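Why Glycosyl transferase? Reviewers of the renewal asked for a concrete example.
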Amino acid sequence: MAKKISLCMIVKNEGAALGRCLNSVFGIVDEIIVVDTGSTDSTCKIARQYGAVIHHFLWNDNFSDARNASLALAQGDWILFLDADEELSSDSRKILTRLIQNNTAEGYFVKIVNYLGKEGWIESVPDLVFRLFRNKKDYHFRGAIHEQIADVILEKNPRACYQIAEDFVIIHHGYLDEVITEKDKKHRNLMLIEKELEQNPTNRLLQYHYGVELFRAERYAEAAGVLIQSATDIDPNTIYFPKLIRYIVIAQQSSGQLQEALNTANLGLKFFPNYADLYYYTGLILFDLKHYSQAQNAFLQALSMPEQPPQYASFGGVRGFRSYYYLAQIAEIFLDEEEALKYYLYSLRDNTRFTHALEHLVRILKPAKEPLYTMECLEKVCDFCTSEANLLMGDIYFRYGAYGLALHYLDQVEDGFPASSDIKLRKGICLIQERRFFESLRLLEDFPLESPEYPIAAVNRLFCFWIQNKSQKVRTLWQALHNLGLAQDTENVISLFLTYSEESAPSSNLVLGPEGMLLLLDIVQRLVALQEIKRAMYFLQVLHPNALTEYCMKVAGIFINYSEESRAIPFLQTAIEANPSVEAHFQLAEIYYHLGRHSEAEQHYKHALRLDPDTPRCYVRLIELYTAWRQTILNEALEKYPDNKIFKELSEEVASSHEATD
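Here is what the prediction returned.
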């Protein structure tokens, strides 16, 4: 006789999701029982369209009571329970029919794939849940929240046998950011669990769920304490124990208890030596502690782990792009750019949507300095065949000030992608930077006065005319912008186009707020990219020295980015005088090193190390510097004393060491 399946659900205002759920099971379940706890939208109407039996239930802050109301109505031999924000995978329909033919299983743990994150960055995390069991009158859910029935079935039937059906897959959308925010799940769950814990303060499973909810609410120290308490004397074979260990580690890490987190991870690996997540988080903690060699080993261990079982609920990418990314970061810290590029590439190949790796790849290749080389390198390893990919590359190159490359990729977007005003605006800016002024003006003049982008487009038209020394058109546009009633900082910046003079030095008394400085520095960057250095310096010289000091590192970065390192020196010196930092000393040392001013470079590398002794890149550079210095001195000595035995031996020693390195 064919076995029948009852789908049991509890719902409230699930009109947006319910159809997707019911459509995934329609035709394979024999009845649909929907317990509604007070919907005011289209939920019940949608349920009726699928032939559901609807029971209205007065909500009493108890999920088990609502679940048990659905069980009381179920007539099938088996119970499948789902939430409205879940659905069966397409392959699971046939598998469900096979599972219920098993005469030995009383119920099944099945695989659930949780989607986390938000649009544009969604991750999947697998887990095991108990969702399919035989329908018997004395089987009832227990617990006001995170309701359970697996333990109850065993209490009622000690001989009950459970099986794991990993090929039966439920897809869960309810952890997506917009769903959690819309339903205020965090606040609701905390309130219900706290109420339940008052009645059952020693319930380990309830404590675990409470700790998880505290973690999601970013109350990390409290979460760690509760989770540790829930782990006390727990059976290591408990199905959620691996996740519990991981949650303790990341709660301790997030609350700054780094050594405690390391200890917990090491303990967890004794129980679960193949748990990739524990190696990965060990790597993260060691990375934060600047124990780079140990961190590197941990990430490599994570990568070497086998496929993770569902009960580990392993985060996507710990055996791939995430670990590769941090291996690349470590390589960068040691100035090994070739190794860093390799790992960033591995990371990107493992997850093409992981744009952090792509951004770092681009940065290392220095697109503003070496545009053609950058494009050739990336096009050898990346596929930019879609409009979305071209738009992404255009956006990245634009932010890095590689305007020619940005224009190249933005031009590819229009074939298969709606041309937004933002794309048009950026293309207009890039055309100015390529000195294709006529084409730029055609785009920028296409923004009507009522358009939100009109002021930005008008400022860029003004900039375009100013570069061409068309003073009358500059004045006309300035007046039009002035009549719009711009913010005072914006007005002050664009007024500088009128007061610029090649003959006279500007007065240094302008003070701008953050928005004004952002606009001014953008203009400076674009002028440096155009090799209009004198004009760029004018915009910097009009600032009051005190107003500029805070931004000296950014200004220096602009000059460095466009191979104007010597001009960055005074700005770095000012930054060091105002607020000595590792980065300022290191950047200044790098410039001196490349200019062959080794004594000054050595001084600033050492200053950086005094500020932070855990700066490997400074040691790398000092070793290179001393090696080069030694070779220079040795060459001078040999030139003066070519027959000296000591100098000859030293020269042979250096030569052999170079051969060994090669």
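Residues 502 and 534 are 8 Å apart (CA to CA). This is the kind of structural detail the renewal will allow us to pursue systematically.
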